[in-house]
Structure formats: C-alpha cells, structure tokens
Design brief:
The complex is a heterodimer of chains A (294) and B (374).
Chain A: H1 7-16, H2 23-35, E1 39-43, H3 49-60, E2 63-68, H4 75-78, E3 80-82, H5 84-97, H6 105-112, E4 118-120, H7 122-129, E5 132-137, H8 144-156, E6 158-161, E7 165-168, E8 174-179, H9 187-191, E9 194-198, H10 203-213, H11 219-235, H12 244-256, H13 264-270, H14 278-286, H15 288-292
Parallel strand pairs in A: 1-8, 1-9, 2-5, 5-8
Antiparallel strand pairs in A: 3-4, 6-7
Chain B: H1 5-9, H2 12-25, H3 32-45, H4 50-61, H5 67-78, H6 91-95, E1 98-100, H7 115-121, H8 138-149, E2 157-166, E3 170-171, H9 173-182, E4 192-199, E5 202-207, H10 213-229, E6 234-239, E7 242-245, H11 247-250, H12 255-265, H13 275-291, E8 296-300, H14 310-322, E9 325-330, H15 343-348, E10 354-357, H16 361-372
Parallel strand pairs in B: 5-6, 5-8, 8-9, 9-10
Antiparallel strand pairs in B: 1-7, 2-4, 3-4, 6-7
Helix pairs in contact in B: 2-3, 3-4, 8-10, 10-12, 13-14
Classes of the chains: A alpha/beta (294), B alpha/beta (374).
C-alpha cells in the first residue's frame, strides 16, 4: 500500500482517478487513513459516497471489497459461512474409509472445521487479504442487530469464529461505510468512525467532474448540464432531486446523441436520464425553457 | 489563516480540549473518546490552518447531520473566524423535528362548516365505550384514559429474512451437520428452518387542527397504545399548519404523560390544516427515505382541506405507492348524515385501503384490529 502523506496528496491521487474532492473530504479522508479509523459517509443518494470508495481503492492501488447491506443480512452473508455440503461429504468419506477403527469425535470435528471448509464473506475476506479497501455500503438498510457484528471488526480489526479461532488483519483494511440516512445508525458504531456529510458539489466542481468522467463531452455542454441539474435541485418541489450520478447520466445521454449543446429539444427527449419520477418529469417539462435560460 | 496570537500562546492541545468541551456545552453529544480522537486528528493534520482544524473537529466530534450546525457556531465563536465550509447555513437541520409548511394563514375558522350539525347528529349510546369522545365531560374523559389501558393492541407482522428452527421449511445445513456429527456421522434426519416474522412499521399522522380538536387527545392516546406494543417500529407525527414528529414523546410508558409531552412539542394545536402540504413534507423528509416504505400508514383526520385538494391527491398517490397499507381514520365516518364529499377526502379516497370510523372507544378498538390485520 502506498503511503499518503497529506490531505493534498490524497486529493491529488483521487483526482487522477477522476474523482474530485473538496478540502473537507480530502482532510477527513486523509485523517481516516492516518488514524486508521473507519470513515462513515452520510448524504443524499447520488452524491458520490460509493464512488469515493472506488476512487480510494484505485488511487491507493488496493483491491476494493464491497459488502452491500440489506434487510436481514446476517453473519453468514457478511462475515463467514461453512461449506456444509463439502463438510458432510468429508464426514461420509471419513466414515467409509475408517474401516474398523473407532471413530474419534474430537479428531473428526477438528478436521471438519478446517480452513478449507471456511467460506470467507466480504468482511473476513477483507481481514485476510488486507491491505484492501472495505466498502460497507448502505449500512442503514441493515437491521440494528447487524451493526453489532461490525463493532468487533471496526474497533479491533478481527473476527472471532467459535469453531475455528480468531482472524486478525495484519494491516488494517481501509473501511468506508455509507448511509443514505433512512434511519439513524447506532451511536456505538458512529463513535468508532470519522463522520462526514457529503453535499452536492458546486457548479464549478460538478462541471469539472463531468469533464473528468466523460472526456468526450465539451466544456460548454458539461457546464450547461451542471447548471440545469443544480437548478433542478434548487426547485425544492421534486420528489427526487438529481444527484451527481444523474448529471453524469444526462451528459452521457446527450453526448451519445451527438448533442453539442443542451437545447430545448434535446433536453425534452433526454429528461428521463435525470428525472426518474413521472410527476417530476411532468412538472419540469412545463417550464423547460426556464431551466435552460442563461 | 493562522490561529490568533493569544490563543497560540496556550499549548495547542489545551485549546483543542477546551474547544471540545465548548462543543459539548452547545449540545453536541461529545464523549471522552470523541474528544480524544479530535486531539489525535488535530495533531495529525497540524494546527497551521484553521480550516484543517475545522475539518478534523467536524469529522471526530460530530456524529450526525444534526450536529453540524451547532458545531459550526461554536467553531466560529471559538476561533473567531468564519467556518470555512461554503454554502448557506444548514436549513435541513432545523427542520428535523419540526417542518415548516411555509407561510399562510393557519387559523381554523371556516374549516368545518357542518361541525355542529355533525355533533348534534351523533348517536348517543349509553355506554361510554360507544360515546363520541367529543361529547364527553371532563370526568368522563378521565375515565376514558383508563379504558385505553384495557385495550390489547397487536402489531401488524411481516416476514423477516431471519430464520429459525421449525418443523417444516428449508434445510438448515448447519444444524443438520451438527446433529450428524453428534451421532458419529450417521445421517439421522434433516433439520429444517423457516423465516420468522417481525413487527411491521406503523406510521400515525394525527390531524391536530381546529376541526379535530375534540378528538386530538384521544387519537394521540390511540397512537400511544399502538406505540406501546411496537416501540421501535411506530412513528407518530402531528399535522396542522406544521408537521411535528412526536415519536419520542409517544415512547413514554405512561399514556397521559405521553400525550402531554406531545402537546408541549406541538406548536400548532387547533390551527388550520394543510394536509396536502404536510403530507408532502412528511414524504420528502421521512416517508420516501424509508419510514413509509412497507409500513402501515394511519391518517387520522376529518379530511377538511382548504382550497385546492389536488396536491393532497397527488401526495396520497405517492404515499399509496410507498406504503403497505393506508388506513384513514375519520371521526365522522359512520355518523348519521356523513358522506365522504369534502374535497380533501374525495381526492384522497382512491388511494385509501380502509376508511374507518374513529370517534369512540369501540371504534378505536376496531382501528387497532384493522391495523393489526393489515
């Protein structure tokens, strides 16, 4: 793993991967690396929380291991599981070949819970393969109980498996958690993390992001799209204000259609790339000229 | 910008430690480990620039979006400079508990032209259980509180992804292997497991406008009863000229205390109603994010909507798509002379799964059943 020496250094590395950060995120990202603390990112959907983890992995030259949380996720999906089919097969084989020898319960059990039957799920995988970037995505979707599994991992970088032993990371992984804030994450978990609220980028930075991500798009088009989406966000009457992801989708859609700039006609046919609710599209369609005016 | 000279005279660490204390005094829950983390973070980034200190403190001392505003204020005061974060002050944080519905005259007059007529027409059965709570004397109201205690609420259930041992279901490989091992590798029988159920979330929106004031107390008591059986999974809001979240008050054990705590939190008792706007604020700030998803949403209102009700219709359509079931409790349903013709209820009705009465103990019990079976 390459050593990051300062916030500016981190910002530079991320920018090389096409991810632009402001001073706040750069400082906090650097702190997370330097202090070896997990980073908890909250913010509206589409502000680039997940993309940050990908950029950090790429910028540091590390592998990204992603755990997508969902309701009812448990240890066997997030930490580890045993390969039961192979264990049972192994048991039958031992039985068939042992002949007349008496069966040694402890011996068999030991051979059953061997490393080769252990299936690593993302978290254990991250601990074993570290240094890696471990992304725990949308932690707010998991149940409260699941957060308890994470506490040991996040504070000591180890997982205890009763039948097997403790797995400890030699180098702690870089851990990034994201939350859309559909529910408040438990305080015990928050205390172990550095916290950052990710806002929508300003017009200039968003234009820059479009240019970096979609090199074919002209500066003029990028700026027009960024301005239009930022106006959409400011309206306040949309069910789902567009995020950076939608800005990129929109610019990419326009570029694919060969549009040199964002005019009324082009905007009307590509509106579905940026507004994903029928009500929103109807509302905006009615005042499309205002959206595009300078 | 470097720190001002008289501050720099102190050992930096002392200043930072005192700053953490000041942030805590401002109401941000700063624990000891948080302030220690701040000291380490500040040392890591160096104290040459105020802005790096700002970000170091924000990442370590704050734990929630709601803390950011207070942090900014203390930082600005403490280091007597502007906080380096660009942009306007965070409006959203102020709205967390209480969402303003904007300007507009919120007086309740003209909301209910037929209210008196309806009250007269109300049936008056002898038993308290069947009496309209709007007509009760204060002594009878007190007795009503005790009646609420006798209700036996059940929470609605839904399938959870968790599994537990069962006699029928899928194969539980882990337990099967354990069992087989215990018997020296002899396959005996398959252990099975199946999915369990969990409480489904219930969201209660209580209209506390002028036209609903005779019922608001009892409806909040009802919400408390629901909350008592499903503490983590019940969200309660009041609706008037504002939308106020009273979930925390409803979690108090004692029903009377809960209702009076909610009363203190709600600034707009007996004002006007703007149901459509309130619903929109609810959906934008809470509902769409997840609170209303898959939940049983109970709206307790008479459906008097001033002016245009198209917004209410539109928001009800949104709500119906998010919620598992929408129950509308109306104190006037089932009374002689009532027909759902008010503009608000007409707009909402196509998106309501159950329209039920809610004016007496007997009907409140019925509502509990409707919600539990949803």
């Amino acid at each position: 793993m390459q050593v990051v020496t300062s916030a500016a250094d981190l910002a530079e590395r991320l920018s090389q991967t096409g991810y632009l950060v402001d001073e706040g995120l750069a400082t906090i990202g650097y702190l997370a690396l330097a202090m070896q603390r997990p980073l908890l990112l909250e913010g509206e959907p589409g502000t680039g929380k997940t993309a940050l983890a990908e950029a950090v992995a790429e910028g540091l030259g590390l592998r990204l291991i992603r755990l997508q949380c969902h309701e009812g996720i448990d240890a066997s999906q997030a930490l580890y599981d045993w390969d039961f089919a192979r264990q049972i097969l192994h048991l039958r084989t031992v039985e068939a070949t042992r002949g007349d020898e008496a069966i040694d319960q402890a011996e068999i059990e030991k051979s059953l819970f061997d490393e080769r039957f252990l299936l690593s799920r993302p978290i254990v995988q991250a601990l074993r393969e570290s240094p890696v970037v471990l992304l725990i995505d949308e932690i707010d979707r998991a149940d409260d109980e699941f957060e308890a599994f994470l506490l040991e991992v996040l504070s000591t970088n180890q997982v205890t498996i009763p039948e097997y032993g403790t797995i400890t990371a030699v180098t702690p992984p870089v851990v990034i958690l994201t939350s859309n804030r559909t529910r408040e994450v438990h305080d015990a978990l928050k205390r172990r993390c550095l916290y950052h609220w990710v806002d929508h980028p300003g017009l200039q930075r968003e234009t820059e992001i479009v240019r970096r991500r979609l090199p074919g798009v002209s500066h003029q088009l990028a700026e027009q799209v960024a301005r239009a989406t930022s106006r959409l966000r400011d309206r306040g009457d949309l069910v789902k204000p567009p995020g950076v992801a939608e800005t990129l989708d929109w610019a990419s859609a326009l570029h694919t259609l060969g549009a040199a700039d964002l005019d009324l006609e082009m905007a009307a046919i590509t509106l579905g790339a940026v507004l994903k609710y029928r009500e929103d599209a109807q509302r905006v369609r009615a005042s499309l000229d205002k959206l595009l005016s300078h | 910008m470097p720190l001002s000279p008289e501050r720099a005279n102190h050992a930096a660490e002392e200043v930072f430690a005192a700053f953490a204390v000041a942030v805590r005094a401002a109401g941000v829950p700063v624990t000891l480990d948080r302030s220690q983390a701040f000291l380490r973070a500040a040392a890591t980034v160096g104290a040459d620039h105020q802005s790096t200190t700002y970000w170091a403190g924000r990442a370590t001392l704050c734990g929630s979006h709601d803390d950011l505003d207070r942090y900014d204020q203390v930082f600005a005061a403490w280091f007597s400079g502007e906080s380096p974060r660009p942009g306007a002050p965070r409006e959203a944080a102020r709205k967390i508990q209480q969402a303003d519905l904007g300007e507009g005259d919120g007086d309740g007059e003209g909301d209910e032209p037929d209210q008196t007529a309806l009250r007269v027409a109300a049936s008056s059965t002898e038993v308290l259980r069947h009496r309209d709570v709007a007509d009760l004397s204060s002594a009878e109201r007190a007795a009503l509180g005790a009646l609420f205690e006798t209700l036996r609420p059940r929470a609605p259930r839904r399938l959870s992804s968790r599994r537990r041992p069962a006699r029928r279901g899928d194969v539980d490989a882990r337990r099967t292997l354990r069992e087989q091992l215990r018997r020296g590798g002899e396959p005996v029988r398959l252990e099975l497991r199946r999915r369990t159920t969990r409480c489904r979330r219930v969201v209660v929106l209580v209209d506390v406008s002028g036209s609903m004031s005779p019922y608001a107390d009892s409806l909040l008591r009802w919400a408390h009863t629901m909350s008592s059986v499903n503490r983590q999974g019940t969200e309660v809001f009041t609706v008037g000229t504002r939308l106020t979240r009273v979930t925390a008050a409803m979690r108090l054990r004692d029903g009377d205390a809960a209702v009076s705590a909610a009363g203190q939190a709600v600034p707009d008792w007996s004002g006007g109603t703007r149901l459509g706007e309130a619903l929109q604020v609810f959906l934008d700030r809470w509902g769409q994010r997840g609170v209303a998803r898959g939940a049983v949403v109970v709206i307790m209102s008479d459906g008097w909507e001033r002016g245009d009700s198209s917004l209410l219709g539109e928001q009800m359509r949104r709500l119906a798509r998010l919620a598992h079931r929408v129950v509308w409790v109306n104190p006037h349903v089932g009374k002689a002379g009532y027909a759902p013709v008010q503009s608000g209820i007409v707009a909402a009705l196509p998106f309501v799964d159950d329209l039920v009465a809610g004016h007496s103990m007997a009907t409140f019990e019925r509502v509990l059943e409707v919600v539990a079976d949803a």
